[in-house]
């Protein structure tokens, strides 16, 4: 079996993908049986290709599932953690722009009564 193209897999529905996955798994099982029986060494490269094809199908299935869940939570306030932006731990814990712009009542009064000092510079 030749290498399967991801673009071809993306066009398929979820049911078709599961059928191709089952087919690839059966073919992999047959290849492994032949390898144990002592077939040619060329089978090992076919086994590798089959494993990679299975991985490609599983990747497309996962991507489609994540896209449907992402569409479901679009515009909602809370999003599942695995769909949130990863960033870094420090960036996730940093204050938001709104939180940074907030001032205490005391600081607001200080700003009003004691404005920024202006100095005249001699030219």
Bin the helical content.
55-70%
Average pLDDT score: 92
How is the biggest beta sheet arranged?
Answer: none
- Class based on secondary structure composition and strand pairing: mainly alpha
Radius of gyration, Cα only, in angstroms? 29 Å
**Segments where pLDDT lies below 50 for 5+ residues?**
none
How many E strands? 0
Total helices: the number is 6
Q: Give the ordered list of helices and strands.
A: HHHHHH
In percent, how much strand structure appears in the residues?
under 5%
End-to-end C-alpha gap: 82 Å
What's the shape? Answer: elongated
Question: What report would you give on this structure?
Answer:
By secondary structure, the protein is mostly helical. It is 65% helix and 0% strand. The longest helix is centred in the middle third of the chain and has 31 residues, at 42-72. The chain starts with 5 loop residues before the first helix and ends in a 10-residue tail after the last helix. 7% of the residues are buried.
Can I get a quick summary?
Helix content is 65%, strand content 0%. It is mainly alpha-helical and 123 residues long.
How would you summarize the topology of this molecule?
Elements: H1 6-11, H2 14-37, H3 42-72, H4 89-93, H5 97-101, H6 105-113
Helix pairs in contact: 2-3
Keywords:
mainly alpha
């Amino acid at each position: 079996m030749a290498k399967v193209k991801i673009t071809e897999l993306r066009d398929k529905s979820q049911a078709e993908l599961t059928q191709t996955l089952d087919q690839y798994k059966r073919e992999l099982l047959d290849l492994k049986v032949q390898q144990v029986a002592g077939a040619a060494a060329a089978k090992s490269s076919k086994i590798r290709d089959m494993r990679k094809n299975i991985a490609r199908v599983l990747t497309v299935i996962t991507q489609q599932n994540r896209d449907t869940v992402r569409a479901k939570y679009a515009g909602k306030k809370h999003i599942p953690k695995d769909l949130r932006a990863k960033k870094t731990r420090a960036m996730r814990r940093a204050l938001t722009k709104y939180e940074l712009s907030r001032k205490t009542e005391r600081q607001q009064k200080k700003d009003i009564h004691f404005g920024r000092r202006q100095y005249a510079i001699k030219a």
